[in-house]
Write a structure and sequence with these properties.
The protein has 548 residues and is mostly beta strands. The chain has helices spanning 23-30, 38-42, 148-158, 186-193, 416-425, 459-462; strands spanning 9-12, 71-86, 91-111, 119-131, 134-140, 198-199, 206-207, 215-239, 243-273, 281-313, 316-323, 327-344, 368-375, 379-388, 392-401, 406-408, 429-439, 444-453, 477-494, 497-513, 518-520, 523-526, 530-547.
Amino acid sequence: MNKLIIAATIGAGLPLLASAQAAVDLANLSQLDLSGTARYMSMGGAFTALGGDLSTLNNNPAGIGVYRSSEVGLTLSLMNRNTETSTADVTDKHNKTLFRANNFGYVGSFNLYNNTTPFINFGASYSRVASFDRIMSGGWGNMNGSSLSNYIAAMTNSEGDIPYRDMQFDGRYDGYNPYLDSNIPWLSILAYNGYVINDNADGVTYSGLMGQGTYGTGEFKTREKGHVDEYNITFGGNVMNVFYYGIGVGITDLDYKQYSYYQENLSDAYIAASKNGADYEIVNGRADYRLSNFLHSSGSGFNLKFGVIFKPVNQFRIGLSVHTPTWYNMTDTYYGGIDYKYTPNDPAYSINQPENPSDAPITNDGTSWHDYHMRTPWRMSVGMAGVIGNNVIVSADYEYRGNNMSVSDVDGNEYKDVSSDVKTYYKGVHTLRLGAEFRVTPQLSLRAGYVYQTSPVKTEAANDGVMIWTAGTIPSYTFNKETQYVSVGAGYKFKRFYVDFAYVNRQRKSTFHAYTPILVDQALDQASPSASVSARDNEFVLSVGYKF
């Protein structure tokens, strides 16, 4: 073994793998929340057949055809987000309060005084359709024979025989590396230079720190923040007050940041150490290391929306809408680093750490970047709404979202391995939305809603049945389970003004995985350390508007 000691902290703005994003990243960035006006949210978003609300501009554009007057409105919300992360050894709770503008919109209605096409309408709106804010942290008091180092070693070995010389860099990564176009994962290079993995006697295969008799603890923390904003331009109208249609263009703005670390503190680990200045050899000792990462994904995109509403009688409506995928132009910036200290049990060996880390070479602490294209899934929803008597409205929607996510380079060449992983890990998502409104008086209305959304993850992937590939130097990933919303609200009209209020409770279960399981010939060789994540949001929404 002939390693180059370069620092107590090894970091670099390292290039990712062949693609900037893995399947798990695409799924994370493609998720959507229940968001819009207070009336829309209080009725669970079940507006595919209803229309007549500013939120329908990014739901079913045919809803704009229902308008018979113009409208301008603003929606604000205050959200309290509670996240609880639990392992067998510890439970951590985090609380965060967010204030934001959910929606702002305008609809212009133009009366054509024509019995066949009485109205032509135009609208523009802004909506925050997704929020990524979340903190997850926890740890394991016993790693039970599992280690990130062993996973990285197995991943490195799966790439074929890689000479240890190809894994070295001088600690000052400046955007050039003679092996940049090779198949060496940068997580492997980072781990090798941080002594998290070590080359075997053959010099072309690698082993991790966990071996027979090794034991220890693990710890993690992940902070996510960001959003997806959508700006919609919609055109629509109606035919004989029976058939309503609409078409819309959505322009999206995505911004996502993740700060994370994962660390292990192992005893009787298989570490690299030297004696009297000789070459390194593998001995038992204490291994303490931390992998830190930062990722910033940002971009803009567009989509198209088509919709119709059919009203055969005044008391009943049927709606249908189709949303194309959103096509994004994306840029990622990222950083990965490892802090380490290895202490041999035998004092004859030296501690693997520079005597004065502050004098060690400093790697490039700027950011590396990667441009690419991303495509999110398409969506289709159908809905029915009915009027009972003169003062009750009930509505129900069903939405299906596909799993046709993909990523490609700037020339449009699709990364086939990522597309294959999407099909292996993910399935279509089914969403049921229910809503009701009771008009107590012509001015006052009470509302309620419910939403149930299935998990997008296939059972085999969720249960550690397949290896989960990640991009760059971030080995962790999160799988969402089902999501539920319960909402109530009220609205009051005063002449041309209106005020609506909603309370929305969201509950979502997820599973955090520190790294993927290792499978050997389709058999589980090493489980994935995981934690249960429960997110509970309480959101208070206020909408004010004017119709004219």
